[in-house]
Design brief:
317 residues; alpha/beta; 35% helix; 15% strand
Length: 317
Protein backbone atom coordinates (compact mmCIF):
# COMPACT_ATOMS: atom_id res chain seq x y z
CA UNK A 1 0.00 0.00 0.00
CA UNK A 2 1.45 3.42 -0.91
CA UNK A 3 2.35 5.48 2.12
CA UNK A 4 -0.49 7.81 3.07
CA UNK A 5 0.11 11.58 3.13
CA UNK A 6 -0.49 13.43 6.38
CA UNK A 7 -2.50 16.62 6.78
CA UNK A 8 -1.44 17.24 10.39
CA UNK A 9 -0.13 20.81 10.45
CA UNK A 10 0.18 22.00 14.05
CA UNK A 11 0.98 25.49 15.22
CA UNK A 12 4.55 26.34 16.22
CA UNK A 13 4.03 25.20 19.84
CA UNK A 14 3.46 21.60 18.77
CA UNK A 15 6.30 21.32 16.28
CA UNK A 16 8.41 19.84 19.04
CA UNK A 17 8.01 16.14 19.77
CA UNK A 18 8.50 16.43 23.52
CA UNK A 19 6.07 19.32 23.92
CA UNK A 20 3.46 17.50 21.84
CA UNK A 21 3.90 14.35 23.92
CA UNK A 22 3.80 16.02 27.34
CA UNK A 23 0.99 18.45 26.58
CA UNK A 24 -1.46 15.71 25.59
CA UNK A 25 -0.63 13.67 28.68
CA UNK A 26 -0.46 16.42 31.31
CA UNK A 27 -2.44 19.48 30.24
CA UNK A 28 -5.32 18.13 28.19
CA UNK A 29 -8.67 18.49 29.99
CA UNK A 30 -11.45 15.95 29.46
CA UNK A 31 -14.69 14.89 31.01
CA UNK A 32 -14.40 11.35 32.38
CA UNK A 33 -16.26 8.74 30.37
CA UNK A 34 -19.14 6.95 32.09
CA UNK A 35 -17.64 3.49 31.80
CA UNK A 36 -19.33 0.41 33.24
CA UNK A 37 -16.75 -2.10 34.48
CA UNK A 38 -17.07 -5.82 33.92
CA UNK A 39 -14.67 -8.44 35.25
CA UNK A 40 -13.84 -11.29 32.88
CA UNK A 41 -12.30 -14.43 34.32
CA UNK A 42 -9.41 -15.94 32.38
CA UNK A 43 -8.62 -19.60 31.83
CA UNK A 44 -5.65 -19.45 34.20
CA UNK A 45 -7.78 -18.28 37.16
CA UNK A 46 -6.97 -14.61 36.76
CA UNK A 47 -9.12 -11.68 35.67
CA UNK A 48 -9.38 -8.79 33.25
CA UNK A 49 -11.28 -5.62 34.15
CA UNK A 50 -12.90 -4.22 31.02
CA UNK A 51 -14.61 -0.83 30.92
CA UNK A 52 -17.57 -0.60 28.55
CA UNK A 53 -19.55 2.21 26.96
CA UNK A 54 -22.71 0.76 25.45
CA UNK A 55 -25.45 2.48 23.47
CA UNK A 56 -27.01 -0.58 21.89
CA UNK A 57 -24.79 -0.41 18.81
CA UNK A 58 -23.93 -3.46 16.70
CA UNK A 59 -20.35 -2.23 16.28
CA UNK A 60 -17.73 -2.18 19.03
CA UNK A 61 -14.18 -0.88 19.32
CA UNK A 62 -11.64 -2.52 21.60
CA UNK A 63 -9.15 0.04 22.97
CA UNK A 64 -5.71 -1.14 24.12
CA UNK A 65 -3.65 1.26 26.24
CA UNK A 66 0.10 1.76 26.41
CA UNK A 67 2.76 0.99 29.00
CA UNK A 68 1.47 1.75 32.52
CA UNK A 69 -1.76 3.16 31.10
CA UNK A 70 -5.34 2.10 31.74
CA UNK A 71 -8.87 2.92 30.68
CA UNK A 72 -8.40 6.16 32.66
CA UNK A 73 -5.64 7.36 30.31
CA UNK A 74 -6.64 10.55 28.52
CA UNK A 75 -6.06 9.10 25.05
CA UNK A 76 -8.37 6.18 25.88
CA UNK A 77 -11.03 8.43 27.37
CA UNK A 78 -11.06 10.81 24.41
CA UNK A 79 -11.04 8.10 21.75
CA UNK A 80 -13.85 6.29 23.56
CA UNK A 81 -15.91 9.48 23.69
CA UNK A 82 -15.49 10.27 19.99
CA UNK A 83 -16.19 6.76 18.73
CA UNK A 84 -19.09 6.17 21.10
CA UNK A 85 -20.78 9.38 19.97
CA UNK A 86 -20.47 8.15 16.37
CA UNK A 87 -22.21 4.80 16.68
CA UNK A 88 -19.66 2.47 18.26
CA UNK A 89 -19.82 0.71 21.60
CA UNK A 90 -16.50 0.67 23.46
CA UNK A 91 -14.56 -2.01 25.34
CA UNK A 92 -11.53 -0.38 26.99
CA UNK A 93 -9.05 -2.95 28.23
CA UNK A 94 -7.22 -2.78 31.52
CA UNK A 95 -4.35 -5.23 31.29
CA UNK A 96 -3.43 -7.43 34.23
CA UNK A 97 -2.50 -5.21 37.20
CA UNK A 98 -3.61 -2.04 35.37
CA UNK A 99 -7.16 -1.65 36.70
CA UNK A 100 -6.14 -0.61 40.20
CA UNK A 101 -6.15 -4.12 41.64
CA UNK A 102 -3.29 -6.61 41.64
CA UNK A 103 -3.89 -9.65 39.46
CA UNK A 104 -3.83 -13.13 40.99
CA UNK A 105 -1.19 -14.89 38.92
CA UNK A 106 2.55 -14.31 38.82
CA UNK A 107 2.40 -13.26 35.17
CA UNK A 108 1.76 -9.62 34.32
CA UNK A 109 0.94 -7.78 31.11
CA UNK A 110 3.39 -7.27 28.27
CA UNK A 111 3.45 -6.09 24.67
CA UNK A 112 2.82 -9.54 23.23
CA UNK A 113 0.04 -10.72 25.58
CA UNK A 114 -2.41 -11.56 22.79
CA UNK A 115 -4.08 -14.32 24.80
CA UNK A 116 -5.83 -11.76 27.02
CA UNK A 117 -6.91 -9.72 24.00
CA UNK A 118 -8.32 -12.87 22.44
CA UNK A 119 -10.20 -13.63 25.67
CA UNK A 120 -11.92 -10.26 25.47
CA UNK A 121 -12.74 -10.65 21.78
CA UNK A 122 -14.27 -14.08 22.41
CA UNK A 123 -16.36 -12.52 25.17
CA UNK A 124 -17.87 -9.79 22.98
CA UNK A 125 -18.20 -11.75 19.71
CA UNK A 126 -21.78 -12.99 20.27
CA UNK A 127 -23.12 -9.47 20.87
CA UNK A 128 -21.72 -7.59 17.85
CA UNK A 129 -21.70 -7.71 14.07
CA UNK A 130 -18.50 -5.70 13.64
CA UNK A 131 -15.39 -5.41 15.82
CA UNK A 132 -12.59 -2.86 15.49
CA UNK A 133 -9.28 -2.69 17.35
CA UNK A 134 -7.22 0.34 18.37
CA UNK A 135 -3.87 0.18 20.14
CA UNK A 136 -1.67 2.96 21.48
CA UNK A 137 2.11 2.59 21.83
CA UNK A 138 2.64 -0.79 23.55
CA UNK A 139 -1.04 -1.50 22.87
CA UNK A 140 -0.46 -0.85 19.19
CA UNK A 141 2.23 -3.51 19.14
CA UNK A 142 -0.18 -5.84 20.93
CA UNK A 143 -2.94 -5.29 18.34
CA UNK A 144 -0.58 -5.75 15.38
CA UNK A 145 0.74 -8.94 16.95
CA UNK A 146 -2.78 -10.25 17.40
CA UNK A 147 -3.83 -9.78 13.78
CA UNK A 148 -0.46 -10.73 12.29
CA UNK A 149 1.14 -13.52 14.32
CA UNK A 150 -1.40 -16.21 13.34
CA UNK A 151 -1.67 -17.70 16.83
CA UNK A 152 -5.42 -17.15 17.18
CA UNK A 153 -7.95 -17.43 14.33
CA UNK A 154 -9.03 -13.93 13.30
CA UNK A 155 -12.81 -13.79 13.32
CA UNK A 156 -14.32 -12.23 10.16
CA UNK A 157 -16.26 -9.81 12.38
CA UNK A 158 -12.97 -7.96 12.96
CA UNK A 159 -13.15 -5.34 10.22
CA UNK A 160 -10.21 -2.97 10.74
CA UNK A 161 -7.45 -1.99 13.16
CA UNK A 162 -5.48 1.15 13.98
CA UNK A 163 -2.16 1.58 15.81
CA UNK A 164 -1.05 4.97 17.12
CA UNK A 165 2.62 5.67 17.97
CA UNK A 166 3.40 1.97 17.69
CA UNK A 167 6.62 0.44 19.02
CA UNK A 168 6.82 -2.05 16.15
CA UNK A 169 10.50 -2.72 16.95
CA UNK A 170 10.61 -3.17 20.71
CA UNK A 171 14.38 -3.42 21.03
CA UNK A 172 14.90 -0.30 18.93
CA UNK A 173 12.35 1.60 21.00
CA UNK A 174 13.92 0.36 24.25
CA UNK A 175 17.31 1.69 23.12
CA UNK A 176 15.73 5.01 22.15
CA UNK A 177 14.06 5.34 25.54
CA UNK A 178 17.42 4.68 27.20
CA UNK A 179 18.83 7.92 25.78
CA UNK A 180 19.34 10.94 28.03
CA UNK A 181 16.71 12.97 26.13
CA UNK A 182 14.04 10.52 27.27
CA UNK A 183 14.98 10.34 30.96
CA UNK A 184 11.76 12.08 32.03
CA UNK A 185 9.61 9.35 30.48
CA UNK A 186 11.77 6.49 31.73
CA UNK A 187 11.67 7.75 35.33
CA UNK A 188 7.90 8.04 35.19
CA UNK A 189 7.45 4.50 33.88
CA UNK A 190 9.96 2.94 36.27
CA UNK A 191 8.40 4.62 39.30
CA UNK A 192 5.02 2.92 38.84
CA UNK A 193 6.53 -0.33 37.62
CA UNK A 194 8.67 -0.55 40.75
CA UNK A 195 5.61 -0.09 42.98
CA UNK A 196 3.85 -2.91 41.16
CA UNK A 197 6.83 -5.24 41.49
CA UNK A 198 7.03 -4.64 45.22
CA UNK A 199 3.37 -5.58 45.57
CA UNK A 200 3.86 -8.59 43.32
CA UNK A 201 6.84 -9.63 45.44
CA UNK A 202 4.65 -9.63 48.56
CA UNK A 203 2.25 -11.86 46.69
CA UNK A 204 4.99 -14.20 45.38
CA UNK A 205 8.00 -13.66 47.70
CA UNK A 206 9.86 -16.78 46.59
CA UNK A 207 9.50 -16.21 42.86
CA UNK A 208 10.57 -12.59 42.44
CA UNK A 209 14.08 -11.32 43.17
CA UNK A 210 13.06 -7.86 44.33
CA UNK A 211 16.69 -6.94 45.04
CA UNK A 212 17.13 -6.60 41.27
CA UNK A 213 15.20 -3.33 41.42
CA UNK A 214 18.47 -1.74 42.55
CA UNK A 215 19.92 -2.60 39.13
CA UNK A 216 17.05 -1.11 37.15
CA UNK A 217 18.03 2.20 35.57
CA UNK A 218 16.38 1.76 32.16
CA UNK A 219 13.29 0.04 30.81
CA UNK A 220 15.59 -2.53 29.24
CA UNK A 221 16.79 -3.39 32.74
CA UNK A 222 13.24 -3.78 34.01
CA UNK A 223 12.39 -6.05 31.09
CA UNK A 224 15.57 -8.03 31.72
CA UNK A 225 14.89 -8.73 35.39
CA UNK A 226 11.11 -8.66 35.62
CA UNK A 227 8.93 -8.51 32.47
CA UNK A 228 10.77 -11.34 30.76
CA UNK A 229 11.18 -13.59 33.81
CA UNK A 230 7.56 -13.26 34.99
CA UNK A 231 6.15 -14.02 31.57
CA UNK A 232 8.13 -17.01 30.38
CA UNK A 233 10.89 -15.36 28.36
CA UNK A 234 14.61 -16.04 28.77
CA UNK A 235 15.64 -12.40 29.03
CA UNK A 236 14.84 -8.97 27.62
CA UNK A 237 16.25 -9.71 24.18
CA UNK A 238 14.23 -12.92 23.97
CA UNK A 239 11.11 -11.00 25.02
CA UNK A 240 11.68 -8.30 22.41
CA UNK A 241 12.41 -10.81 19.67
CA UNK A 242 9.29 -12.90 20.27
CA UNK A 243 6.81 -10.04 20.82
CA UNK A 244 8.08 -7.68 18.15
CA UNK A 245 5.16 -6.93 15.78
CA UNK A 246 7.35 -5.81 12.91
CA UNK A 247 8.11 -9.42 12.04
CA UNK A 248 4.39 -10.14 11.51
CA UNK A 249 3.34 -7.09 9.49
CA UNK A 250 3.61 -8.92 6.17
CA UNK A 251 0.98 -11.40 7.39
CA UNK A 252 -1.72 -8.84 8.18
CA UNK A 253 -4.86 -9.38 6.09
CA UNK A 254 -7.22 -6.86 7.70
CA UNK A 255 -7.35 -3.15 6.77
CA UNK A 256 -4.86 -1.58 9.17
CA UNK A 257 -3.60 1.94 9.73
CA UNK A 258 -0.40 2.79 11.61
CA UNK A 259 0.30 6.42 12.49
CA UNK A 260 3.85 7.09 13.74
CA UNK A 261 5.12 10.66 13.92
CA UNK A 262 8.65 11.23 12.67
CA UNK A 263 9.46 13.31 15.77
CA UNK A 264 8.15 10.71 18.24
CA UNK A 265 10.78 10.64 21.03
CA UNK A 266 10.01 6.97 21.81
CA UNK A 267 10.55 5.59 18.32
CA UNK A 268 13.79 4.47 16.72
CA UNK A 269 14.25 4.57 12.94
CA UNK A 270 13.40 0.87 12.90
CA UNK A 271 9.89 1.69 14.19
CA UNK A 272 8.85 3.10 10.82
CA UNK A 273 7.86 0.08 8.67
CA UNK A 274 8.03 1.74 5.25
CA UNK A 275 9.04 -1.39 3.36
CA UNK A 276 6.42 -3.54 5.08
CA UNK A 277 3.68 -1.05 4.20
CA UNK A 278 4.74 -0.89 0.57
CA UNK A 279 4.60 -4.69 0.31
CA UNK A 280 1.24 -5.26 2.05
CA UNK A 281 -1.96 -3.86 0.55
CA UNK A 282 -3.72 -4.13 3.91
CA UNK A 283 -1.13 -2.10 5.82
CA UNK A 284 -1.48 1.69 5.61
CA UNK A 285 1.33 3.79 7.10
CA UNK A 286 1.12 7.50 7.87
CA UNK A 287 4.22 9.29 9.18
CA UNK A 288 3.45 12.94 10.01
CA UNK A 289 6.47 15.20 10.41
CA UNK A 290 5.14 16.27 13.82
CA UNK A 291 3.01 14.67 16.52
CA UNK A 292 5.25 13.35 19.28
CA UNK A 293 4.16 10.21 21.11
CA UNK A 294 0.35 9.93 21.16
CA UNK A 295 0.33 13.71 20.91
CA UNK A 296 -1.03 15.23 17.67
CA UNK A 297 -2.48 18.17 19.61
CA UNK A 298 -4.84 20.68 18.07
CA UNK A 299 -5.97 23.46 20.39
CA UNK A 300 -8.86 24.47 18.17
CA UNK A 301 -10.62 21.11 18.42
CA UNK A 302 -12.10 18.99 21.24
CA UNK A 303 -10.63 15.86 19.68
CA UNK A 304 -7.06 15.44 18.54
CA UNK A 305 -5.97 14.88 14.97
CA UNK A 306 -5.23 11.16 15.36
CA UNK A 307 -8.57 10.52 17.06
CA UNK A 308 -10.39 11.93 14.05
CA UNK A 309 -8.23 9.75 11.78
CA UNK A 310 -9.22 6.63 13.71
CA UNK A 311 -12.92 7.38 13.19
CA UNK A 312 -12.42 8.21 9.51
CA UNK A 313 -10.49 4.99 8.86
CA UNK A 314 -13.18 2.86 10.48
CA UNK A 315 -15.93 4.64 8.57
CA UNK A 316 -14.08 3.97 5.31
CA UNK A 317 -13.45 0.29 6.08
Amino acid sequence: MPLLPSDYKPNVLFRNGHINTIYASVFRKLEASSFTRKRIETQDDDFLDIDFLKNGNRKIVVLCHGLEGSSASKYIQATASLLNSNGYDIAAMNYRFCSGEINRQLRTYHSGETEDLNTLIDHILPDYDEIYLVGFSLGGNLVLNYIGEEVFPINPKIKATVGISVLVDLYGAALELSKLKNRIYTKRFLKTLAVKMKLKHKQYPNQIDIEQLKNVKRLIDFDEHFTSRLNGFRDARDYYAKTNSKQFLHQIEIPTLVINALDDPFLSKSCFPFEEARDNNYLNLMTPKFGGHVGFNALESKYLWHEEKILLFFEEN
